[in-house]
Amino acid sequence: MNENITVKEVITKKEFNNFFNFPYDLFRNDKKWVPQLLAGEKETFNPKKNPAFEHCKAKLFLAYKANKIVGRIAGIINDRANEIWSQKRIRFGWLDFIDYATVAEQLLKTVEDWGKQEGLTEIVGPMGFCNMDKTGMKIFGFEEDDPMSCYYNPEYYPKILEEIRYEKEVDTIQYLLPGSQSIPEKVLKINHLIKEKYKLKIVDGISKKEIMKRYGIKFFEALNKSYSGLFGFIPLTEKQIHYYIKQYFPFLDLKMMCFIVDENDDIAGFGVSMPSLTGALRKNKGKLFPFGWIHLLKALKNYDKIDLLLTGVTPEWQNKGIHSLYHAEMNSRYIALGVKTALSNPQLESNEAHRVWQKYNSTLAVRRRIYIKKLD
Question: Is the pTM of this model over 0.85?
Fold first, then answer.
């Protein structure tokens, strides 16, 4: 029974705005909620701006009860991902709903039905268009604030998904670390030997404009190579690379980035982090204007808590200790900046890379889950 729950596809501009405004109603009394930047969220679903639409299809849906919006969901079909991974999957994301299982069930069923109409056999999520989008639903660590790069969800979400027969596909984990841990002398000596042996250097002393010019494309090419083979990863296209360079690089802090390059000036390894924007987003409620940008600017200069966004080593440099170079370099910068705590980026629990955090004074803080269900 649908219990008078109606799900409708988003068609009009008003419905489009209602889709993105719904969390403001749902979580208005939830102090743990972290609003997203509304402008960025809407741009993600603009086919004229997001190059992912060259190989993706998407539909947005709203759930109503007594003419009141009680839930939302996005359905995404990524043809390129299905081809690369030899799968027939539809994705769901941007899933929010009141604490009522029937609402979630009807929203997901609508996306499931679309997937079956397209000849697909599985539904997975939460996922976005590509790996630069948010993935996973928090199932552990609800006391920890979510970074801007992750979904927020209350505790009843995963309980309801499992109640309606969604199962675990993969989990990602995040560690919380003191930000200014001392670097062991042994590590510093080994790192010096690694740099000398492989003729590596850490990019430093150049402007952000020069960083973008020399390493913008190289960074995303290195990211494509580093993450190749990881669960669900789809290499970014050339248009997507240029899109994300323009979207992210202007806001990055050079003190929060580390590029390790070889003698050909190609990126061997990288680490990218930034000050936490969680507090600022709560203050500006996800809106830049008229004065929301002020909160973001202040947050970008506050290094008390930082989010570790991306780390990686290209395949030809893996198993050579390169990861130790950028971890130590970033650690030394955090000490200089007075960083108090750092939250690692979500990494697959099966990915050996996250074991580096276990060498530090760290705590497993958050676990997120991507769910799957067969389309009968």
Answer: yes
